[in-house]
Amino acid sequence: MSTDRxxxxxxxxxxxxxxxARLRWESLIRPDAASYVLGAILSIIVGGIALLIFGTAPFSxxxxxxxxxxxxxxxxxxxxxxxxxxxLCGLAxxxxxxxxxxxxxxDGQFLVGALGCVAVAAVMPHIAVIGAxxxxxxxMVTGAAFAAVPxxxxxxxxxxxxxxxxxxxxxxxxxxxxxxxxxxxxxSLPQTNLVPGTFLLPKVGSQLQLxxxxxxxxxxxxxxxxxxxxTALGYRMRIVGSSSGVTRYLGISAGRITTGxxxxxxxxxxxxxxxxxxxxxxxxxxxxxxxYGFDGLAAAFLGGGRPVGTLVAALVLGGLHxxxxxxxxxxxxxxxxVVVLEAILVIVTLVVRGFSARMLHQRAQLATEA
Amino acid sequence: MDAVxxxxxxxxxxTPVAFAATGETxxxxxxxxxxxxxxxMLTGAFVGVITTSATHLLWLGFVxxxxxxxxxxxxxxxxxxxxxxxQVVSGLMLNLLAQGGTxxxxxxxxxxxxxxxxxxxxNVPIPLLSKLPYVGQILFQQRLAxxxxxxxxxxxxxxxxxxxxxxxxxxxxxxVDAATLEGVLVRPLRLATNTVAGAFSGAGGAxxxxxxxxxxxxxxxxxxGYIALAMVIIGRxxxxxVIPAALLFGLASSVGIQxxxxxxxxxxxxxxxxxxxxxxxxxxxxxxxxxxxxxxxxAWEVEDVGGRR
Lengths: 370, 309
Hints:
The complex is a heterodimer. Chain A has helices spanning about 15-30, 35-55, 60-70, 75-100, 105-125, 130-155, 160-180, 215-230, 230-240, 255-280, 290-300, 305-330, 335-370, and strands spanning about 205, 210. Chain A is mainly alpha-helical.
């Protein structure tokens, strides 16, 4: 057992990396392409069974989904637009995961970031480009501050971050509700004033209608990927996350790394919230809760806990969401059917990946013994 | 504000969380982390409502909720123990599955706003004991399911600490290798504890729908499953502490409702958030022990020890 005296290993967070130290590490490093394909096929089948239970013909349902996801330029635009916040929220899971923490508060950090953005927008002078950047930063700072609570709780008080981040999601939702109903209320409706047009993110492509935040997202993900994989900081995070206990001897402050990673994650999720406001919503309504935090969680798991993998997974999930909108129209099913299919996708894909990694491992063992 | 009625309401409101937390204590003692409590509670609630509205039998709905909870607990155990899925991933994804699934099925089964309103469990005062001052109203004028809590809690405590099975569960949770070498069949044991945890959560969820709310609402558990997880930590994995800890949630909840009614200056959102804030604060207060069962959440392969499957 590790006895790192800097910070006690979390029973929850570090176990993921401990577990991955065994058979699953191979599958995390070298994804087996075939297992993903098989996972996708099985997910479609299992998802089809779920759709049958919901009383819809699976084949036409999946056709609607694909059509809504990639069937037209508008559809692709929708998929990418939804994929962006999911990818960022996935990043908000990946970064702390590298340091051994599990951040399930992405949803709350997202909402708080949106709130911060709108709050600042209400008092800021209308300057075009700088204004939008300031607002995005406002979202980032708010999200980071919100994540600082569970971060400090974990580092200084040993509070389990899995439980604290989840509970704070609910607090964030109520905070948003109060703010939008009260101080930030725009008129008679429980919502803020419309965000001034000067701050809204410009869109690219007449049919794609991609707001530039989508491109920013890609850069952020690539940047984080490089930092995690190629820099000393990323290396230090990995050491902390491995809970091997050597951080003391290497002069690494585990507490600062874990706190920092969670705060950064909050910042990323908060920025995603601000981006959604400036790029898509344009206003904050009471009850706004798209749940991108949990989609981001799914994307992070699908992506094997790595930034680029998360991006790819987010694209898939974005397509699923966009397709789900069309599905809702054609089948009258509740939009939550997307969440069901999403969960099935993650479970089935990871199970297949686990089995294939185990098979590869056993084959490798047999090969060396022979 | 009648203080006695307040505590009575608190006991009533904390029953679902107490059930789920007790079951989770058993599972975590054996080393299994079950974050899917939220989903199991929610599904238990939904199935309970469906069953009761179809059969008009409250107790059958309650039992059905227990059953579906156990089934999902079993699924979680199979996914993690047999299919090798990480326990946290499995739990969280099952939660998503349950949240989405119940919402979709709710709309199908009860179209329109009438989300299957059913009669709630009646208050059943225990004949003599309910006449006791204060304690009588608080503890002995509750629903039948709430009365179950105390004997179930004590029985669980006794089983966990005084029987061989309990010892095996502890062993599986503290040192799996040693346990296997001593002949403990860890995997079937964990399968069983997880199914039991699921059953308890299903019971909690069914009570939430049938004993408190009188119907189903989308995501009606609102984080109670996660609060139950916190209660297990706060209660130091000790059944006898976990159930009173769950009362904490109930108190915050009922006090919140009372204050919401009587206070006009504080926004109502604060009172809704109160139980969550209180729970997080208590966790900050270092009341919780950091002595988690050592094997908590760790994946483990039988081959590593050379034990038999």
